[in-house]
Design brief:
globular, 4 helices, alpha+beta, two-stranded antiparallel ribbon
Amino acid sequence: LGASHRAASHDSGASRRWAAKSEMPVERAPQRNGDLPVLGDNEELRLSEPRTRLYTGQDLQGEGVLHLTTRRIVWLNGQNPAASYAMDYPFVTLHAVSRDKASWPEPCLYCQLKAEETDDQGEEEDEPNIPELRFVPAPPATNLQQIFSVFSEMSALNPDPADEQADGSSDEEDDDFEEALPQGFPTPMGAGIWAADPNDAAMEDAIENDDGLEAEGDVAMETEEK
């Protein structure tokens, strides 16, 4: 009994530390109705996997039910409802199926979360600590691939707003640059195609000079596949 109490205290402490460090959209003890999460407006439940253990780093948080909705990842702890979590998909920067026993003893869904770019003093860290999660379904984990597929599909439906803002800023900068160019000035490669004035004398000279040339064999274009 004493050992079990110490283990439970250790897990609870790890949960508090992880929740305290997470300044991203991680919700502790989300609303639930039994083993089901309370859904928000226009939110639908797409997959539920019972008997799924959650590890934060190396710390076991417990066993519960993993739910993938159209907006969130929700894990509801079966033993301690207060130690349940929900997070938005953009918070997860990488997710993958892990079956390598050298990395983890059981098949699981491995996730990397957004890392804090500053330390406790507010200074930028050269190599921020990347939080890791592992969702470990009960053996034989037959639904692991389906969990990954649904996770991927829902992630695609919930892109990171910061990435969209960055793309929008880049497009606006390109538009401003093109507007600043003098009329008739060729735009940089990738920003458009420059067509010479049909009355351009240089073009007429080039056409006249090409009349006396003949192609000597075919020209092959090499491409490199990445």
